[in-house]
Amino acid sequence: MLSFLYLKNLMARRWSALFLLLLLIFFSITGKGFLSLENFQDIFLASVTILTLGIGQTLVIITGGIDLSVGFTMGFSAVVMACITRYLSLAGVSPVYSILIAIGLALIVGAIIGLINGYLVAFLKVPPFIATLGMYGIAHGLGLITSGGFPVANLPDAVCSLGNRYLFYYLPKEFFTFFRMPEDVVHTKLREVVRILPLVAIVIFAIAIFMIIILSKTQFGKHTYAIGCSMDVARRVGIRVKIHLLKIYCICSIFAALGGIVYTFRYGSGNVEAGAGNMLISIAAVVIGGASLYGGTGNIQGTIAGALIIGTLQIGLVILGVQSFYQYIAIGVVIIIGVLIDQLTEIKLGEVE
C-alpha cells in the first residue's frame, strides 16, 4: 500500500511529461499535418525563449524567490545587443567582432541587473517580488531610452543569418549540407529544401542539459535546494546564503539577457518589448514542470517539459485555427492544474509520512 502511494506521488510529480505526451497525441489526431518535421521544429523554436528564461527562473524559484524583471531584462539586452552591433558595423568593424562584442555587453547588462536584484534581496532584505518588480520598471525604461521607443533594426545580414540557420539542409537527389545551404540553389526550389534542427534550439537545449548537471550533481545545486527548504538551516550548516542568492539572481538575469540575444539573432532586430509577454510564461513553465513557489523543489527537466507543453499548445492551437487569445486561457488552465497537483501531492505525502 505504501509503495502504491509513492508510485501515485511519482506519477503526480511527473505529470507534465505525461500531459505533454497526451497533447502530442491529441493534436496529431485533431490537427491536420501536425505530425511533420516542420511542426515539431516550430514547437522547439516556440519553446526556446520560454526555456531560456525558465532555466534562470527555476533557480530563483527553488530558493523560494521570484524574478519579475526577466521579461524587460530580455528586452533591454536585445536593444543593447542590436545598438552595439549596428554602431560597430557602421564604424567599419567586421560583423564577427561586432556581434561578439555586442553579445558580451548584453550579457554584462544582464549580470549587472541580476547583481542589483540579488543585493536587494539578499543583503537589504527586500522581498523578491518588490525588488524585481522595481527592476522590471527600470529595465523597461532604460530599454525605451536606449532604443528611442522603436525597434533597433538595420543590423548586419550575418545576425539574422546565424539566428535562422539549421544544422542540416537537404534537397532530395541534389544535396545534403551542414550549417548552410548551397548558394547556387535555384530560387524556385527553396521551398523544397528540408531544414533539420535549428541551431538556436540546439544551443539552448544543450545549455539546459548542462544546467541539469550543475543543479543535480554539484555543491552549487545542493546549496540551492538547501536554501529553498530552509534558509535558517542552510545558514547554520555553513552555507553563505547571501552570496549564493546573489549568484542565483545574477545567473537568472544572465539567462534573461541570453533570451534577448536569441531574439536579436532570430528576428534581426532589438525590441524592448521582446520579452514583455514571456515573464509570466517563463514562471508558468517552471510551475508546470513541478517546481513549488514555496521553494525547495523543482528541476530543469521539469522546466523543459513545461516549456515544450506551452510551445505545443501554441503551435497546436494555431494548426487547429484557434485564435491566439485562447492560448492564454489554455496556459492559465494548465498552470492552475499544475499548482493543484503540487498541492495535492504535498498533502498525500504528509498523510503517508
How would you sum up this structure, described in words?
The chain is mainly alpha-helical and 353 residues long. It has one domain: ABC transporter involved in vitamin B12 uptake, BtuC. Helix content is 71%, strand content 4%. It has helices at 2-13, 15-30, 37-62, 70-90, 95-122, 128-147, 157-163, 199-217, 219-229, 231-236, 241-267, 278-288, 300-319, 325-352, and strands at residues 166-171, 175-178, 194-198. It has a 3-stranded antiparallel β-sheet with strand order 2-1-3. α9 packs across α11 and α12 packs across α13. It is globular, with a radius of gyration of 21 Å.
Topology:
Blueprint: H1 2-13, H2 15-30, H3 37-62, H4 70-90, H5 95-122, H6 128-147, H7 157-163, E1 166-171, E2 175-178, E3 194-198, H8 199-217, H9 219-229, H10 231-236, H11 241-267, H12 278-288, H13 300-319, H14 325-352
Antiparallel strand pairs: 1-2, 1-3
Helix pairs in contact: 1-14, 2-13, 3-8, 3-11, 3-12, 3-13, 4-5, 4-6, 4-11, 5-6, 5-11, 7-11, 8-9, 9-11, 12-13, 12-14, 13-14
